[in-house]
Amino acid sequence: MILNRLRHVRTHANYPFVYNQSRFHTLDATRYQIATQQQETSVPTKEESSPLKNVGRAPSNNRLLGEIFPTTRVMPMVLSRKDSIVLSFDDVPGPKTLKYLSNVRQYLSQIGTQLTAGILTVGLNIGTFINNKKPTKSLSLLFDEYGPVVRFVSPVGGDIVLINHPDHIQKVYTMEGDAPVRSTLDSLEKYRVEHRHHAYGGLYSVHGQEWTRQREKLVNPLHCAVGLHLHGLNDVSENFTQKVYNMRNHQDEVPKDLYKEIHKWAFDCIGLIVFSKRFTMLDTELVYSQCDMSWLYHSLEKATDAIIKCESGLHMWKLFTTPAWLSLVKYCDSLDNLIGKHVMEAEQAISFSAKTLDGNTTPDSLINAMLLGDEKMNAEDVATVIMDMLLIGVNTITSSMSFLLYHLAKYQRTQKLLYDEVGKLIVDLKDINSIKEKTPYLQACIKENLRLVPPIPVLTRILPKNIILDRYNIPRGTLIIMSTQDAALKESNFEDATTFKPERWLKPNTKEYHSFASIPFGHGSRKCLGQNIAETMMTLLTVQLVQKYMLEYHYGDIEPTRTFIAKPNRALKIRFIDRT
Ligand code: HEM
């Protein structure tokens, strides 16, 4: 939604460049001066009426942009000899084809910037297929062609700038402001506007004051959640380890879909954290009609598939009712209803026991934390927040756990070193920090796995101020896509970059790396809130599996798919061989 609003603004912002190219060729000095004046501090005011002053950024009288990023005073900058030359937004290199189409963008305004991202994804996937390249490689080819800052002139929405240099990523984060804005999933947003009567999104997708309110409400309960449920999380992991034992075939492989079993494990764990209830999807063979929990799981799976389809295609669902869109509505409705039921039960339990929450009391569940206290949320908002949490939390953890097992099975020497560390470990379930302290090599494995395959491979920001990246002046309001995975796979940032080498994260080696070269959980005030939960879950399960089994993998390389949350692109046929 925000993107759709900003797109309108950005369209006008580009006109001086699109139509006045020749004029600028003769006015180079003026252009550089103007671009420099727009550096990080400059934000347009209502008084700026000269067309030249508005080059490369939003028109000054735009109310919407002002609403999202409140206006600050313009500080004129004087160009001294020491100032490096700043190039305009139009000089940013990128594929030309889309530029010609940009003249028709105003006629297609309701489709939006996300479509350009969709086209980008489809293009990269086709390129990968035609050139028989690894999916992770095709994005880096773009940077090889155009340099570390690539501009996509969108024919139908706002332009996109793609970056992969750790210095630039760091600079974007330092300029993100107090209430950072990321691009959201348009499909989920449309669903909420049309089918949920403009309900707020969950923490991942809201902005501004609502984001601040939700984040403040959730930050502590999510931190405490791990401590509250450490035993339960360990039990779920034990369940998974036992299920693998029961499901193995004669080759010691799990013949059914191992990814799906990991998904159920993640669902049971996050279910425990969110609802404070023991879900038992791992023990349940799916008979959908029989219980709410199975339906919740089934709806989550189907809603995820539908969102992936809607987000990665050509966004036709914005114009027509496509099967993917119908499926999204059906399963998001189902998720909403089922989660709503849990929230209502929690509400009733609260009113029955007349629970209260003063400032120092730790709530006994995440739902209760949201329903109690001074800034308590209404039931509908709580249901939305939980839906987003399930969609992000369950899928990201499933992705990382799958790749962690794959990497351990593939790199036998690493697995042996890990076994030396955890083989005889007795896990003290009173304190997760002590478990982490006793397992530095395992923590390095988790980190290295997330470097190689971050479940969310690109992060986005829409900045409140102009930013200069690699000498190019990028106007505020531009969608900046940070290809963090590409940064993490670059030889210039990590030697032997595509190899799984946990040792690189052990002291003193860790100092060698740029702190923004691998940021799987993001950074800053909008950083992932589930990092501790994710690391704890992966620690508990890996310890149990490595203590009991030797992992092996004998098939072709597994790559992450290019979807909004990465998945393995082929079956996880890992062998779980009993340790004697
Ligand atoms: C391996 C697992 C996970 C990874 C790699 C991961 C990664 C991320 C990333 C990259 C972001 C965006 C950060 C940014 O824009 O700078 C994010 C946001 C978020 N994550 Fe995670 N995540 C994981 C698991 C979880 C779990 C288990 C939960 C909760 C149960 C969770 C809840 C959230 C929330 C609520 C946000 C939005 C925060 C905000 O906008 O303020 N994540 N995550």
UniProtKB/TrEMBL annotation:
Q: Name one GO molecular function term.
A: iron ion binding
The organism of origin for this protein: Cnaphalocrocis medinalis (Rice leaffolder moth)
Please report which protein family the annotation says this sequence is part of: Belongs to the cytochrome P450 family.
Cofactor(s) in the UniProt record = heme
Q: Which residues bind heme per the record?
A: 528
Q: Which Pfam families match?
A: p450
Q: Keyword check for NAD, yes or no.
A: no
Q: What is this protein called?
A: Cytochrome P450 monooxygenase CYP339A1
Q: Region annotation Disordered: residue ranges?
A: 36-57
Q: Which PROSITE patterns match?
A: CYTOCHROME_P450
Its keywords, alphabetically, are:
Heme, Iron, Metal-binding, Monooxygenase, Oxidoreductase
The protein's matches in InterPro entries, at most eight in alphabetical order, are given as: CYP11_CYP27_families, Cyt_P450, Cyt_P450_CS, Cyt_P450_E_grp-I, Cyt_P450_sf
Q: Show the PANTHER family listed in the entry.
A: CYTOCHROME P450 (PTHR24279)
